[in-house]
Amino acid sequence: MKKSRIIVESIIKGFFLGCALVAVLSVVLITLFIFIKGVPLFVEVSPLKFLFSTRWEPTNEESPGFGIFSFIIGSFYVTFLALLIGVPIGLACAIFLAEFAKGKFAVMLRRVVELLAGIPSVVYGLFGVIVICSLVRETFGGTGFSVLSGAIILAIMILPTIINISEISIRSVPEEYREGSFAMGATHWQTITKVLLPASKSGILAAIILGTGRAIGETMAVLMVAGNAPIMPGWITSKVRTLTMNIVTDMSYASGNHMVALFTTGIILFFFIMLLNITIYIITRKSRIRNA
Amino acid sequence: MHKKQSPFISGYTRQVKLKEKIMKGLIWIAAGVTIFILFWIFGYIIYKGLISDITREYNVAGKGSTIFPLDEKGENEVICIVHKGIRAGDLSMQVIRSFYNGDERYWLVSEQGLKVRPFAPEPGTTFGQKTRQALLLDGEDYTRSVVFTDNDEGTINMVANTRGGIGIIHAENIHHPLIKKVRIVPVRFLSIVVNEKVLSIQNNVRLNSFTEDDVSNIFLSKVRNWKDIGGIDLPVTVISYNKDSYPGQQFQELVLGNRNPGIKAVFMDNIGQIGKAINNNEGAVAYCLFSDIHRDFPGKIAMVERREITPNISAHFLLEKPEKAGKAGGIFDIIINTLLMIIFTILLATPVGVGAAIYLTEYARQGKFIDVLRFFTETLAAVPSIIFGLFGYILFVNFFGWGMGLLSGTLTVTIMILPTIIRTAEEAFKAVPREYREESLALGATHWQTIKGVVIPSAIPGILTGIILGIGRAVGETAAVLFTLGSSPTLARDIFSSARVLSLHLYILAKEGISFERAFSTAFILVVIILVVNVSASSFAGKMNTLKKKS
Amino acid sequence: MGTTFTLPKFKQCEENKTTSENKINMTEEDDTAAMNFKIITKNLDLFYGDFQALYDISMDIRPNKVTALIGPSGCGKSTFLRTLNRMNDLIASVHLNGNVYYDQTDIYKNYDVIELRKRIGMVFQKPNPFPMTVFDNVAYGPRVHGIKKKNQLHDIVEKSIKKAALWDEVADRLHEPALGLSGGQQQRLCIARVLAVEPDVILMDEPTSALDPISTARIEDLIEELKQNYTIIIVTHNMQQAGRISDFTGFFLNGKLIEMGKAKDIFFNPADKRTEDYICGRFG
C-alpha cells in the first residue's frame, strides 16, 4: 500500500520533471538542428566570406555569392536606431509608472503597455506600411520603405519590454534609498537620476538588451516596412534587409546551397540572440548576488 | 492676522526645481506619446477595419441609373439584372462590357468569388444586335460563357436561377411579375472623352485622372486651361451634345446634378460629330455613352476618380469562404483554421507548461539544476519566432515528413508559447499561500494529493491568465507558422493539411498587394481578439492578486 | 548653473536664518519665550486617510539640546518626527491640521520643502547608505545642492566624516562601496551624510535599533558631541538610551503626547501615571 503510493508519487514527479525538460530539450534541439542544417555551407563557402562579403547572389549559377555582411549590418543598423528612439521613451514611461504615476492616467498607460505588447507583429507591419512608410516618404523622401521606417516600428514594438522591466527594476530599489535622498533635501528628480536610476542600472540594462534581442529577432513587421533590398544600407532612407528578412524572403523558393545558406543565416541570428541572452543572465545574476 | 509670506528659496534650489519641472514635463510627454501611439495604431486599424474609404478610377463618370440606354438615341432603354446573391451596389458599363467579352470572369466588383454567368438576347433579333453593339467593341464575339435567351422572361428566369448570373432586359419589363426574383442594379454609362494631347506629358506634368469636381468644373466652364487642374498648358474646349438630346439630358442629371445651370459649349448632335470635334481640337473634352465608344473613336477616355466609402467588415466577410486568394469572399475558413490551431496548441502546451511550472515550484529545490532549467526557459522565451519557424520546418515538416500543415504548425507554436505558460503558471503557484499546502500535508495528504487538491485549484485563475496570454501570442504569430503551417486558404481537412491562419492571411494580403482593405479588416479581427485576450487575462490576473493579498 | 550660484550658498542659509527671525509669525502672547525654541508644534493632528495617528500635539524643542521621544511602538512618535521635516509629504494619504514652526516660520505654509530638509536632516532606523562609494554618499547632499568643485566637495566630505567620528575607519576606503562597511559604520556614514548638508536640526529615528551594543555606544557618544552644534531630536525604544543621552524627553501613547519635560523629571518624577507605568516597564 505504502510502497505503491511512493511509486505513484515518483511517477508523477517524473512526469513533471519531463515537462520541465521539454523547454531544455527544445532549446537543445533547436540549436542542434539549425547547426546540422546550416554548418555544411562552410564546406563550400568559407565562414569569413559568408560573414564579411556583401555579395548575396545565391541563384547565380556560375559563381553563387553567399555573403551576409550587409544583412548583419542591416540588422544592427535598424536595431540601433530603434533603440535610439525607443529607449528614451521607454525609460521615461518606466520612470513615470514607477515614480509619478497616480490615478487614471497611470492605469491607462499600464493598459496601453500591455496592449502594445499584445499587438501581433503583422498588424504593426500593416500599420507601418500604410502610415509610417508614407510619413517617412513625405518627411525624408525616398520610397518610405527604409531603415527609418523599420526602426520606428521596432521602437514601438520594444517599448513594452523596456518599460516593463525598467519599471520593475526601478520599483525594486529599496524605499530607504528614496527616503534617505529626500531627507537630505534632494528633489524628486535628483532622487530619480542620482539614486534610483544608478541603483537600478543592471535591470535597465537587462531591459535594453532584451529589447535589442526582440528587435534583432523581429521578422514580419520589418519585412513589411524596411524595403528588403539585399544591399548595404546607406542613409536612413535607404532600403535594408536584415538577417530575419533574408531567411523569410528566400525560404519560399530556395533550394540546394541557397537553402543551406538560409539556415546558416539562422545560425548567425541565433548566435547573436544567445549572446544577448547570456549577457542578461550574467547581469541579472550579478545583481541578484549583490542584493543578497 | 497671518500675513502670507513667500517661502524662502535659494537661487540654486529655484534652478533645481525648474529643472525638475521641465524633466517631469518631458516624462509626462513621453507617457502621453506612448498612449498616443497605441490609440493611433488601434484607432487606425479599427477605423480602416470598419470603413473602407478608397478612391477608385473609372472609365465612367457620374451616378448610376437603373434605366440606361444602349445608344445615344435613347430608343433602346434597358435595365441590368443580376442574381439575388450578388451584392454589387452599382456597375460601370465598362465592367459589364468586360463580363460579356470574358476579360473579367469573377464577381470581384462585389468582392465575391462567384463566376460571372452572362446572359444575352439572341444576336439574331434586333434587340440582340443592339445589345451586342453596346456590350462589345466592333467585330468581337461574346465570350463562350455567354448564354443566349429568347426573350426577357427567359433572361429573368435564367438570371434568377443561376448564381453569378447577369442579364440585360428591356426597360419596360421593370414591372414584370418575375422581376422580384432578381436584383436590378444601377449602371453608370457616361464617359468623359478628351483629345489625346490633354493626357500627354509635358515638362513632367501629366493629367492622370479627373476628380468628380474637375468634371463639373470643366463642363461649367470654370476651368479654362488644363493646367488649372494639374494638366499641361492648353486651353479647354468643351464639346457637348445638344441640351435636349438624350445623352445631354442624362449628363445634366447624372453627372452635373440638376442643380447646375447647364453647359456652355460647342454643341453636337451625335457621336460621329463629337469624335471629329475632339480630333480637330487639341484641348477638347466631351462626354458620351461608354457603349458608343468603338475602336475607331478618335478621342481617349479620361479616368474619373470616385471616392467610395463603404463598410469594410460585414457578416458576409466573417461567414464566407475566402475566394480568389482572399481578394473576394470572406475569411470564415481562416478563422476556423486559427481556432483549430489555437485549440490544439493550448491542449498541448497547457499540460506541459503547467507541469513544468509545478516541477519548478513544488518539486525542485533551489540549486544549480533549477538555475539551468530557468535559464533554458528564459532562452526559449527569447528565441525569435523566425528561428522557431526554421526549427519546425526542419524537424516537423522535413525530418518527420509531416509537411506543412496543422500538425507541424501547432507543434511549433506550442513550443513557442511554452515559456509564457510556464512563467505565468509559476507565478500563480508561488502566489498560493504556504499555509494551504501545510494544512493539506498535515491532514496526511501526499505531495501529489496536495498539489492536485489544493495548489492547482487555487492557482486556476493564474493558469488561465497564462493560457490566455499564450493564445494571444499564438494568434498573432506569423513568422513561425510561415514555413510550418502552410498557406492554403481553405479549411483544414485533417491534421496534415495546410491551413492558413489570420495573421498569415493578413501578411499575404498586404505583402502581395491583394487587398489592403481586406488586410485591414483581418487586422481588425486580430486586434479585437487581442483586446478580448487582454481584458480577460487582466481580469483573471486580478483574481490571482486577491489570492496573493489573502496570503 | 555656474559657480556663481553655488558659492554663496552657506552664507545664504545664514541670511535665511536672520531673515526668518525677522519675520516672526506668531500670534501667541509669549513671543519672547517662543524665540527660544527651535521647533514648535501647535495642536498637531495627523491622519492616514481616515485613521488619526496624532492627536493635538503641542511641543517645544529647545536648541542645542537632545530631545528624546519615547513610547511603545505604534504610539506615533516616528510619525511625529517625520512631520518635522515633512517626510510624511511622501505619503499621499497623509494630511494634517495644526502648525509646525521652525525658527518661527510655519514649515507647512511658509517654507520650501527642499530648503527645510536642508536645515532639518534625518537619520533613519536602518542604515541606508546609497549603493555608491563612501565619498559619493557623503558628497551626495552637497552635490544635490549645487556644489561641484572637487576640492570643496573633498573638504566637506572630510569634515563631515570627521565630525561623525568615522574618519579613522574609512579614510583609506573613501572610494570603496559604502555597503561594504559594517552596520555601525554605515549608520555613522549616514550621520556624516546628513552633516555634510550643514543642517541645523538632526532628526534620528531609532538610529541604533539595528546595531550591536558597541556601535550603539559609539553613536550615543557621537550624539553627545553633536548637540553642541546641532539640535537633535531622537526617537528611541530604548529607555536607558533616552535616559543617558537626552536633555528633554517626551512620552507618546496612542498618538497623544502624554508628558514632556526635562529628562530627569520624566524618568525620576513623572507627573502622569501612564508615564510612570511605561518607565517602570509595566506597559505592554
- What gap, in angstroms, lies between the N and C termini of chain B? 54 Å
* Spatial gap, N to C terminus of chain C: 55 Å
Total number of helices of chain B: 17
Biggest sheet details of chain C: 6 strands, mixed
Defining traits:
heterotrimer; B: 551 residues; alpha/beta; D-Maltodextrin-Binding Protein, domain 2; MetI-like fold; 3 domains; 6-stranded mixed sheet; elongated; disordered N terminus; C: 284 residues
What would you say this structure looks like, in words?
The complex is a heterotrimer of chains A (292), B (551) and C (284). Chain A folds into 2 domains: 2-38; 65-291, MetI-like (MetI-like fold, Orthogonal Bundle). The model of chain A has no long low-confidence stretch (mean pLDDT 84). Helices cover 78% and strands 1% of the residues of chain A. The radius of gyration of chain A is 23 Å and the shape is globular. With 292 residues, chain A is an all-alpha fold. The longest helix of chain A has 37 residues, at 2-38. Chain A has a two-stranded antiparallel sheet. Chain B is α/β, with parallel strands linked by helices. Chain B folds into 3 domains: 67-188, D-Maltodextrin-Binding Protein, domain 2, CATH 3.40.190.10; 191-310, Periplasmic binding protein-like II (D-Maltodextrin-Binding Protein, domain 2); 317-550, MetI-like fold (Orthogonal Bundle), CATH 1.10.3720.10. In chain B, the strands form 4 sheets. In chain B, strands 1, 10, 11, 12, 13, 14 and 15 form a 7-stranded mixed β-sheet that branches. In chain B, strands 2, 3, 5, 6, 7 and 8 form a 6-stranded mixed β-sheet that branches. A two-stranded parallel sheet of chain B has the order 4-9. In chain B, helix 9 (332-363) packs across helix 12 (406-431), helix 10 (368-382) crosses helix 12 and helix 13 runs antiparallel to helix 14. The longest helix of chain B is centred in the first third of the chain and has 40 residues, at 11-50. Residues 1-5 of chain B have low confidence and may be disordered. Chain C is of the alpha/beta class. Chain C has a single domain (3-279), classed as Rossmann fold, CATH 3.40.50.300. Chain C has helices at 3-6, 9-22, 31-34, 77-84, 113-119, 134-144, 150-163, 167-170, 183-195, 213-226, 239-245, 263-268, 273-279; strands spanning 39-48, 51-61, 66-70, 94-102, 105-106, 120-123, 201-205, 231-235, 248-253, 256-262. In chain C, the strands form 2 sheets. Chain C has a 6-stranded mixed β-sheet with strand order 6-7-8-3-9-10, with helices on both faces. A 4-stranded antiparallel β-sheet of chain C has the order 2-1-4-5, covered by helices on one side. In chain C, strand 1 and strand 2 form a beta hairpin. The model of chain C is unreliable at 1-34 (pLDDT under 50). Chains in contact: A-B, A-C, B-C. Chain B binds chain C through residues 2-3, 5-13, 15-17, and chain C through 1, 5-6, 9, 12-13, 16, 19-20, 23, 25, 27, 105, 109-112, 114-115, 144-146.
